[in-house]
Amino acid sequence: MDTPDPDGVLAEQLLRLTRRLHRLQKRQLEPIGITPAQARLLRTVAMYDTPPRMADLAARLEVVPRAVTTLVDGLEASGWVRRAPDPTNRRVVRIELTDTGTATLKSLRLARRSAATEILAPLTGEQRETLGGLLATLVDGTAGPRC
Questions:
Q1: 8, 29, 85, 101: which could join 80 in a potential S-S bond, CB 3.0 to 4.6 Å?
Q2: Residue 30 DSSP code
Q3: What pTM did the predictor assign?
Q4: Percentage of residues in the chain with pLDDT exceeding 70?
Q5: DSSP bridge pairs for 97
Q6: How far apart are the two ends of the chain, measured CA to CA in Å?
Q7: Helices 36-47 and 65-77: crossing angle, nearest 10°?
Q8: pLDDT by residue (tens digit) across 8-62?
């Protein structure tokens, strides 16, 4: 008889939770008409104080520049972003949010919050706080060695 692998069970639970959250978010995004990848890029563009370059976005998202180009094409076609020349270097193109893109970000935040609320509904406030701390440790990778 195999002995249970607690780390394997945890990894599987995390994967299942991630898939469930992704499905919920995708369902929330459908009425907005945006894919999860486009939504992530739109949120990333909004993080910058000044409009980013495509290379900045690719680096931040840890993807190849071509992937960003395709996503920007889709966002631009929907009117959520626009390509703009860099005022100091004419060879550089920056990606700016449009007013429609800013409004869409608000809808995305509501959709994301709705999906999170559904996922977290079974937890108490204290459990949510504990989970948040645990996830922060896992994401940051700052925990010490395990005994």
A1: 101
A2: G
A3: 0.76
A4: 95
A5: 81
A6: 25
A7: 100
A8: 888 899 999 989 988 888 888 889 899 889 999 999 999 999 999 999 999 999 9
Q: Per the structure block, which two tokens stand in for 4?
A: 């249970």
- Point out which residues pair with 118 in neighbouring strands: none
The residue type at 4: P
Question: Contact, 78 vs 90, CB < 8 A?
Answer: no
Q: Which two tokens stand for residue 57?
A: 């976005």
d(CA 45, CA 52): 7
Pairing of strands 93-97, 81-85: antiparallel
Joined together, the tokens standing for residue 33 give: 């008409």
Q: Which amino acid is at 24?
A: L
Beta bridge partner(s), residue 81? 97
CA 75 to CA 77: how far, in whole Å?
Answer: 5
**Cβ atoms 116, 100 nearer than 8 A:** no
Q: Kindly give, in sequence order, each residue whose CB lies less than 8 Å from that of residue 115, ignoring residues fewer than 6 positions away.
A: 21, 24, 25, 27, 28
